[in-house]
Specification:
Shape: globular
Distance between the termini: 61 Å
Length: about 220
């Protein structure tokens, strides 16, 4: 009977140690995530850590057995490329894959946050180039809350209002521009720095039509 009692005591001690170990690992994981390297330029595009380059590609989202799969490329030219210095400063951005190699013009507010980026983009249909840009406004937490893209060809076509969840992930964008729409986001996978690398967007337009896109980010670090 004493031997059985001793065995049970040892079992309780063993599971107690496992429980404490699990708590420690969880704490270390949370601490690591909260201490990730962060700058205003990284935060603007929902990134953290020593990011060197981030390439976002867009595909058709295929629903199968309650899950989303990556389909064909949504647009052969559509791609989002971001490049950062080792200090976390944005040094290059383009919305088209390998078509725009010109420098960006960047404006910042008094807190160092980017308020506008403009550059020359290729005009595929007409030839030559045209100027396009993006303007941002921020909420009290320093997060982008309003995004207004523009270009020489078409004005006032978008006015995005951005909403976040408790983890600061974008969950909803309300476009109050010329063509109203609502886009919601479902996150599928994050990397070791807690940056999302796979998500699905569902855009509901003014005609009650929904378009779902599978978004995938390839992030490299210093």
């Amino acid at each position: 009977m004493k031997q059985l009692s001793k065995i049970l005591k040892n079992i309780k001690t063993f599971w107690g140690y496992l429980f404490i170990l699990a708590l420690c690992l969880n704490f270390m994981s949370c601490t690591k995530a909260s201490n990730e390297f962060l700058t205003p330029d990284l935060a603007l595009f929902a990134l953290k850590g020593k990011v060197k380059e981030c390439q976002t590609n867009f595909y058709k989202a295929i629903e199968k057995d309650g899950q989303y799969l990556k389909g064909e490329k949504e647009d052969q030219y559509r791609s989002k490329s971001l490049k950062y210095s080792i200090l976390g400063e944005l040094i290059f951005t383009t919305d088209y894959d390998s078509l725009n190699n010109k420098s960006n013009t960047v404006k910042r507010n008094a807190k160092g946050r980017i308020t506008e980026i403009s550059n020359e983009s290729p005009w595929i249909e007409e030839g030559g180039t045209y100027t396009q840009g993006e303007v941002w406004e921020y909420d009290n937490y320093g997060r982008p809350c309003r995004h207004i893209p523009y270009d020489d060809v078409e004005a006032d076509y978008a006015d995005d209002r951005i909403e976040y969840d408790n983890e600061n992930n974008i969950i909803r964008i309300e476009d109050k521009g010329r063509f109203p729409s609502t886009t919601t986001y479902q996150y599928i996978e994050f990397d070791q720095h807690n940056n999302w690398i796979k998500r699905v967007s569902a855009c509901l337009n003014e005609f009650d039509q929904t378009k779902k896109v599978y978004e995938e980010r390839n992030i490299t670090y210093y």
